[in-house]
Amino acid sequence: MTGCRWVLELPPGMELLTANQRPHWAVRARRTRALREAAAWMARAARVPQLEHVHVLAEYRPPDRRRRDPANWQPSFKAAVDGLVDAGIVPDDDAAHLTGPDPRLGPVTPRGQIVLTITATEPAPGR
């Protein structure tokens, strides 16, 4: 199964979390839950099997051409990866089962979007 790849495109226009935001805890919880659920549903729909170790490339596709720091969306990427755990894709999001998420900036997409590329990998030696 090593090397197999799945691409999950979360719905455009979702409310995202950034490292610079300081939303009310209830707003943050609602957005986190929505991202987790969307990623879990997308993984199930794509029929991603249970895997022992994966690499996740997390791409933020902005709605416009302004300068962006893709690492700023790490809270959104983390919530989406937690959704992969919820869906049973990997047992946990620790270093023994997951490499990444590696943040990248993608092409301009109307309303903005997060895309996860999941690649089945072998765990690093010593893990």
Estimated structural class? alpha+beta
Treating each run of at least 4 consecutive H or I residues as one helix, how many helices? 2
**Low-confidence segments:** none
Portion of residues within helices: 25-40%
Share of β-strand residues: 15-25%
Task: Calculate Rg over CA atoms.
Answer: 14 Å
Output the keywords.
127 residues, alpha+beta, 4 strands, 23% strand
Structure overview:
- With 127 residues, this protein is of the alpha+beta class.
- Helix 1 crosses helix 2.
- It is globular and about 40 Å long.
Give the helix/strand layout.
Layout: E1 5-9, H1 25-45, E2 54-61, H2 74-86, E3 98-105, E4 113-120
Parallel strand pairs: 2-3
Antiparallel strand pairs: 1-4, 2-4
Brief summary of the model shown:
27% of the residues lie in helices and 23% in strands. The protein is of the alpha+beta class. The mean pLDDT is 95.
